[in-house]
Amino acid sequence: MSQSYNRGTIESFGRWREFSAGMWAWIFHKFTGWVLVGYLFTHIAVLSTAIDGAEMYTNTIVTLEGLLLVRILEVGLLAVAVFHILNGLRLLLVDLGVGLESQDKSFYASVILTGAITVASVPTFIAGAF
Amino acid sequence: MAEHYSSFRKGGRLWLWQRITAAFLVVVLAFHFFLLHFVYHADEVTFALSQSRMETWTYYSLMVLFLITATFHGVNGVYNALINQGLTGTKRQVVKGTLIVASVILLVQGIRTANAWAGIGVL
Q1: Which residue of A has its CA nearest to B104?
Q2: Torsion sign over Cα B86, B92, B96, B102
Q3: What is the pLDDT of residue B1?
Q4: Domain at B14-118, CATH class
Q5: CB-CB neighbors (< 8 A) of B74 in chain A
Q6: Which of A37, A66, A88 has its CB closest to that of B78?
Q7: pTM of the entire predicted model
Q8: Which ranges constitute the DSSP H helices of B3-122?
Q9: How do the domains of chain B map onto residue ranges?
């Protein structure tokens, strides 16, 4: 494959109006990655209340899951994770030389599928919060 | 910013490990979400329920491997993102050291938590 793809100076976020689908995919992947790694540290911090005993852990989780805000944030986390997974699959395939020519279409598919899975999951994620 | 910064190093293994862990995490992260939100539900979580899963050595091993790969993939991803933004020199070494220390703390705390559920008295 001799065609080259000029992504420009990728650090120039000020050029966002000129960004193509692939550039948005790159930015969304970075953003969701930052959120997920931030959540990983938070998640372990919350779960580690289990070290202080069963009662401490159960009370902490029950209190947090009883908050509607936490449930809404969990839906957001799902959206972030689903996009990162789908776009990650897209990137793995592109790295293997599969689907480079239709990488813009696979990005749009990732976004649409993320939206569909997130919306369909809302009832399950919100259940018991009221 | 005219220069083009890249975290890619020819012959480097981190690039490959980022992708190997990605392939693993795609499956395990989806499984984790499915199990803990669709099979079990958020309002049902108790210590005993987590304990019953973590006492199974296959689940315990999978979760520890999940923690290790997610920590590597996440922290290495942050490091790469910062390099792509132009992080160099002493700042880069300080950030690298900080991220390594943060990773070790996360791993130790995560494994201690898994051990608390599994009833393992080490660490």
Answers
A1: A41
A2: negative
A3: 44
A4: mainly alpha
A5: 33, 36-37, 40
A6: A37
A7: 0.89
A8: 14-33, 47-54, 57-84, 89-118
A9: 14-118
